Amino acid sequence: MSTTDEAFAAAYRAHYWAVSRFVARRLDPGAGHDVEEVVADVFSIAWRRRAELPPATPLPWLYAVARNCLANTVRGLGRRRRLLDRIGHHETAHRGHVVPPPDAEAPGAWVHEALARLNPADQEALRLTTWEELTLDELAVALECGKSAAAMRLHRARRRLRAEIDRMNMTVTAGDRDRD
Fold first, then answer.
1. Which of 29, 75, 122, 142 is 20 to 30 A from 38, comparing alpha carbons?
2. Are 100 and 30 in contact (CB under 8 A)?
3. Where are the alpha helices (H) located in the chain, listed in sequence order?
């Protein structure tokens, strides 16, 4: 077995579940695609490009591949939905695609609501650093950009999240005053 084959095998063993959780958090379960299917695509691509796999820290690189696989999956689902709409199966195409909003009384639901109001790029930068616990260097790899660009994206995403939370707090405070 070659060094690149061994590096791939080690990365697969060490990071399969992390990539699986990464995909599961981003894939709508009612959309008709299995998490395992997307993860299989990720590792299939990683196998074909195993010479590019960073030996020291492969996980951020695998996250970048997963992001691209998820984007392809979403585009494919959009094409499928449009095709079904054209042939008159509009109800079938949209059934099960709505994710219910978080329970307003659940702890931290307001954070999810504020995050959902951000654009997808901001959401991804925040999720990669918070949920996946990536460092700035790893974030740059996952976003396929330079370290300074990743730092700027993260800074702006945090600023927009703070502004959204402040807007939500102002709405809640105004609602409380209206009830008094």
1. 122
2. no
3. 3-26, 35-48, 58-86, 90-94, 109-116, 120-130, 136-143, 147-179
pLDDT of residue 140: 93
Q: What is the pLDDT of residues 121-130, one digit of tens each?
A: 999 999 898 8
* Backbone torsions φ then ψ of 137, nearest 5 degrees: -60, -45
Q: Domain ends where: 99, 116, 148? A: 99
Calculate Rg over the CA atoms of the chain.
20
Q: Are residues 43 and 60 in the same domain?
A: yes
Contact at 8 Å (CB) between 171 and 104? no
- Alpha carbons 37 and 50: distance in angstroms, whole number: 19
Q: Which residue has the tokens 């590019």?
A: 52
pLDDT tens, position by position, 143-177 = 999 999 999 999 999 999 988 888 887 776 666 55
